[in-house]
Structures are given as structure tokens and as C-alpha cells.
Amino acid sequence: MRILIVLALSVAALCGAEKFGKGLTLQQATPLATILGTPDEYVGKMIQVKGKVTEVCQMMGCWMQVQDGEKTLRVKVKDGEILFPKNSAGRRVVAEGVLKKIELNQQQAVAWAKHEAEERGQKFDPAKIKSGMTMYQIQGTGAVLLD
Question: Do 90 and 52 touch, CB atoms closer than 8 A?
Fold first, then answer.
């Protein structure tokens, strides 16, 4: 089976695919609807997702937003460890990593939302953040950009 994975990645490389990080180790992706339908079942586990890149961190290339159908999930990597191309939006991706649950209190949620607004060049009103929040993201270990 490993031979098939290596062969598939080799063919992908010849077709213009770009590999990031440690590459892919799992044999199949789990739909985002399945993961986000029962996220606590996947927290702490290595997962693989496939979809379209809808957004990439324009400051450092340290995260990408992946969309599969109606659902989206962020793939975040350690700053400087992997740099996703900032022009990757619109490309297909297969990404792997460990699903993390992040629980923020109200003050942390304000700081996070402020940072997101700054990255996007948007105005931010801290008064709109009335409570804490829970979010899920993949701590990415590897990805292959296609197309």
C-alpha cells in the first residue's frame, strides 16, 4: 500500500502538485461534514482532509482555510515550519494533521478576532464579542496542493 501512496504522490508531483511538510501518511480523507458533525470524536487524532483552499494567511503563510462542500476548517502550522503559498486560494488540497479543540474565554476571543481582522485588513469592534468561543482546527503536519 505504501508503494501506491508513493506512486500517487510521484504522479501528483509530475502534474504540478506541491508537497509541504512531512507529506501524507493516511490512506484516505475524512469529509469535513463528518469531522465537524462530531468533532470531539476526532480531537487529538491524526486526520486527513480534502477540499478547496479558500483563504491563506497573507502575513506568514502559516494557515489555510479548506472547504469541502458547505464546511470549512483551518489547517494551521507552526510559524516558519511550513509556508503555504499566499496565492493558493482556489487550488485543491489534501492536508493532514491532528485535530485540536481550542476554547477561548471572552478576552481571548476578542484578541483572536482582533488578530483575524488585522490579517484581513478589516475594521474590528471588540464590543461585538460578547462571550468566549470554541473552535476546531487541524495542527498541520503535511499537505499536497494540486492544480
Answer: yes
Sign of CA dihedral 89, 104, 59, 121: positive
**pTM exceeding the 0.90 threshold for the entire prediction:** no
Query: Which structural domain, as residue segments, surrounds residue 65?
Result: 2-145
Distance, CA of 95 to CA of 53 (rounded, Å):
10
25 contacts: CB under 8 Å, gap ≥ 6: 46, 96, 142
12, 18, 22, 24 alpha-carbon torsion, rounded to 10°: -40
Give the domain CATH number at 114: 2.40.50.140
Q: Which pLDDT tens digit goes with each residue over 106-128?
A: 999 999 889 888 887 889 898 88
